[in-house]
Amino acid sequence: MMQTHPWSGFANAHVFVAGGTSGINLGIARAFARCGAKVAVLGRNPEKAANAAAELGPQALGLAADVRDPQALGAALEKAVEAFGPIDVLISGAAGNFLAAATDMSCNAFKTVVDIDLLGTFNVVRLGHQHLRGAGSSVLTISAPQASIPTPLQSHACAAKAGMEMLTRTLAVEWGRQGIRVNALVPGPIGDTEGMRRLAPDDESTKRTASLVPLGRYGTLEEVANAALFLSSPLASYISGTVLNVDGGYSQGGAMFRMGA
Ligand code: COA
Fold first, then answer.
1. 28-55 b/e (C-beta count within 10 Å ≥ 16 → b)
2. Which InterPro entries match (predicted)?
3. E strand or H helix at 207, and its extent?
4. How far apart are the first and last CA of the chain?
5. What is the mean pLDDT of residues 3-28?
6. Is 48 touching ligand 1 by the criterion CB < 6 Å?
7. Which residue's CA lies nearest to atom 17 of ligand 1?
8. Which of 167, 239, 229 is CA-nearest to residue 39?
9. Predicted model pTM
10. Pocket probe mutation, ligand 1, options 69, 98, 114, max atoms within 8 Å of Cβ
11. Is the shortest distance between the CB of 110 and ligand 1 below 6 Å?
């Protein structure tokens, strides 16, 4: 008997991707669109949101709102639900970052990244929850290695992402009885992203970063998207509260590996 592919279940599903107007999150949105999903992407910049939706095709919607603004975010979620119906897959990936030592950062600079990454994620999943279809829906947050690896010049991102991962695991417990799975993805160094252009801006730092990955290279947008499809699909029906590294082993490197052993 012919088996249907587990990802064929995404055909006409409503996938809402906060932060989906660029980078890793746009890569994830593309993968769901290719599976026939109706994809809503949300970002701060209206032009980028419109361009992303145009690229994703006729079943896509571009929405502009800041995840730090619950009212604007709530209105955007309502627009998406009006267009595509209840949400099957809710993804929270909006993030902000810059390199700065703690002593070179104002209190507001630290707060800004916590506001976007941690509080913004709470806003997306809290306000998105009421629009989920229900049992079988999947919630995915996009974290970073900084959540578990203390990283110089990244105290704001380390603190925010660590909080985000604990929020994700806690909601997996709170929402489990509703049949809603909540997981986090942790992309390591991924090529062709704004994040890596900022964190490793030149050839030398790119080479050095790649050398810290046990697999010896940056990952691709598609490799992260594959993990997002898996975690949101029936193949992962018993997986909730997981924090999944998609990083070529980067977060397992350890001191000896980093010294070139
Ligand atoms: N070093 C130190 N402080 C910095 C900084 C840096 N490189 N960049 C921003 N800040 C400070 C600002 O000075 C400000 O603090 P102040 O009010 O005390 O002066 C605070 O952070 C907020 O900055 P602002 O630019 O007003 O905030 P914003 O909400 O418009 O944007 C970011 C914040 C993080 C999104 C912004 O840095 C940005 O646009 N980043 C590029 C996009 C990005 O980060 N993508 C994700 C990659 S993972």
1. bbbbbbebbbbbbbbbbeeebbbbbbee
2. DECR2-like (IPR045017), NAD(P)-bd_dom_sf (IPR036291), SDR_fam (IPR002347)
3. helix 203-211
4. 50
5. 92
6. no
7. 108
8. 229
9. 0.95
10. 98
11. no
Is the pLDDT reported for residue 261 higher than 60? no
Residue-range domains of the chain with CATH: 14-196+217-243 (3.40.50.720)
Nearest residue to 147 via CA among 191, 190, 97, 109: 97
> Tens digits of per-residue pLDDT, 118-167?
999 999 999 999 999 999 999 999 999 999 999 999 999 999 999 999 99
Query: Does the CB atom of residue 187 touch ligand 1 within 6 A?
Result: no
Give CA 188 to chain center in angstroms.
12
- Residue 71 Cβ inside 6 Å of ligand 1? The answer reads no
Q: In whole angstroms, give the CA distance from residue 175 to residue 12.
A: 24
**169-178 per-position pLDDT tens digit:** 999 999 999 9
Q: Is residue 66 a contact partner of residue 44, using CB atoms and an 8 Å limit? A: yes
Atom of ligand 1 nearest to the CA of 144: 48
Over the stretch 101-123, which tens digit does the pLDDT of each residue have?
999 999 999 999 999 999 999 99
